[in-house]
Amino acid sequence: MTALRKTQIALDPDAAPFAIRAERASDVVAREALLDACFGENRHLRTCQRLRDGRAPAEGLALSAVRQGRLVGTLRLWHVSAGGVRALVLGPLAVDPSCRELGVGAALMNHALAAAKARGHGAVVLLGDAPYYARFGFSGLKTGELSLPGPFERDRLLGLELREGALDGAWGMIAPTGASVSPAKARRAKLLRSVPHAA
User: Fold this and answer.
1) Rounded to whole angstroms, what are the CA distances from 31 to 12, 49, 89, 155, 187?
2) Which residues contact 66 (CB under 8 A, 6 or more apart)?
3) What is the β-pairing status of strands 146-147 and 172-176?
4) H or E segment at 124?
5) Residue 54 Rama label (left phi>0; alpha psi -120 to 50; beta)
6) 65 Cβ contact partners less than 8 Å away, ≥ 6 residues apart
7) Given a cut of 50, is residue 10 above it in pLDDT?
């Protein structure tokens, strides 16, 4: 009989380069700074922002990636009607440039999609770089008849079915359907966006 050897496991904070958890209220300032750094301060003028304005993210689908106590990634999903089909819209996905080689973006994507599927959602749409998102199963196969409330590049409108056939018949405008944010919370968020952030 072979003797079992005890293996020592070092609890080194660098061993796990980051952790993914539910977004917290304390993440807001860091999240906004990260989004500004990744997308520019004019990001609120982008077409997909119309799907998020005045809305709360889908329950349980606002995620933060944290490394050594610092927010290094964010991803949120929002309720929409994709031409009459219930779906989620993904975005924005942002990762601190100093952590991009750690796989934070892929981990956030995989975590978010698994959580959305576990919560019974059928489909996710997004506006993004097709070669990047193809590895998660996104394509333009079922988004050709969908539009957004503003200018967009057709080849960047992608979809993923979490349940087979969930985007069948999707046609028309993608519109927000999520819970509205209270006016006080919306004013607070707008105020936070107007405060200069350190990059």
Assistant:
1) 26, 15, 18, 28, 17
2) 18, 19, 20, 21, 72
3) parallel
4) strand 123-127
5) left
6) 18, 19, 20, 71, 72, 73, 74, 95, 99, 104, 107, 108
7) no
Query: How far is it between the farthest Cα atoms of the chain?
Result: 70
The CA distance from 146 to 3, in Å, is 63
H-helix or E-strand spanning residue 194 = helix 183-194
**Residue range 124-150, pLDDT digits in tens:** 999 999 999 999 999 999 999 999 999
pLDDT band for position 44 (50/70/90)? confident
Give bridge partners of residue 90 from the DSSP assignment.
77
Question: Do 128 and 94 touch, CB atoms closer than 8 A?
Answer: no
Q: Report the amino acid identity of residue 105.
A: G
Place of tokens 């350190």: 198
